[in-house]
Amino acid sequence: RNKVMRPSQLRIFAGTSRRLFRSDDTQELLVKKLITHPKFSHSSLTNDVAVITLKTKVKIDGITADVIPIPNKEPTIGAKCTVIGWGTVIQFGPTPDEVLNADVYIQPYAICKQDTLFTKGMLCAADINDYEVDSCQGDSGGPLICDGFVTGIVSFGIGCGERGSYGVYSDVYYYRNWINNNRATQQKLNGLPAFALAIAIALRAFRIQYF
């Protein structure tokens, strides 16, 4: 978060759920353009969203790589969602080789607002019956998938799995117009706009590597 990444510093990997292992299905793709939100703030973490344009298309087969669309309505309070990533398994702990997932639930605005940084364009999620279920360091930028849509993007939290604390996500629906305005092409891919690849995560099969 302390500096703006250059496209040449990024690689997109698709087709594998492994962080350290490459198979015949692994795809490594170069980044053509990285568009960060012009009002992103390092201090308040507002507008924590970006659009990535790839130099080549991801090979979509519906098995090792697929497209998940962005939502066309506001998140539903109480909805069961799944956060996916290669973040640490505990705060400051080791990072896994195999992608992990956790089920959390969209929380009401009044509860989320207890975090002083929480504001419009954000949503929060947690499992109030098991506070240890949470996203963690290294999950940032990963998807929160609700009802088959990329509803949130992992942004920040107070620790990981802390009692009374909630994971905070960028609200994809809130930023849908900005995303649409910055899409790379109008071409369709499997019935979905190609720009969806910029934030849609290929389930079990999408990660970003920084150099």
UniProtKB/TrEMBL annotation:
<dbReference type="GO" id="GO:0006508">
    <property type="term" value="P:proteolysis"/>
</dbReference>
<keyword id="KW-1133">Transmembrane helix</keyword>
<keyword id="KW-0472">Membrane</keyword>
<keyword id="KW-0378">Hydrolase</keyword>
<keyword id="KW-0325">Glycoprotein</keyword>
<keyword id="KW-0812">Transmembrane</keyword>
<dbReference type="GO" id="GO:0005615">
    <property type="term" value="C:extracellular space"/>
</dbReference>
<keyword id="KW-0732">Signal</keyword>
<keyword id="KW-0645">Protease</keyword>
<dbReference type="InterPro" id="IPR001254">
    <property type="entry name" value="Trypsin_dom"/>
</dbReference>
<dbReference type="GO" id="GO:0004252">
    <property type="term" value="F:serine-type endopeptidase activity"/>
</dbReference>
<feature type="domain" description="Peptidase S1">
    <location>
        <begin position="1"/>
        <end position="184"/>
    </location>
</feature>
<keyword id="KW-1015">Disulfide bond</keyword>
<dbReference type="InterPro" id="IPR009003">
    <property type="entry name" value="Peptidase_S1_PA"/>
</dbReference>
<keyword id="KW-0964">Secreted</keyword>
<keyword id="KW-0720">Serine protease</keyword>
<dbReference type="InterPro" id="IPR033116">
    <property type="entry name" value="TRYPSIN_SER"/>
</dbReference>
<dbReference type="Pfam" id="PF00089">
    <property type="entry name" value="Trypsin"/>
</dbReference>
<protein>
    <recommendedName>
        <fullName>Peptidase S1 domain-containing protein</fullName>
    </recommendedName>
</protein>
<feature type="transmembrane region" description="Helical">
    <location>
        <begin position="189"/>
        <end position="206"/>
    </location>
</feature>
<dbReference type="InterPro" id="IPR043504">
    <property type="entry name" value="Peptidase_S1_PA_chymotrypsin"/>
</dbReference>
<dbReference type="InterPro" id="IPR001314">
    <property type="entry name" value="Peptidase_S1A"/>
</dbReference>
<dbReference type="InterPro" id="IPR050127">
    <property type="entry name" value="Serine_Proteases_S1"/>
</dbReference>
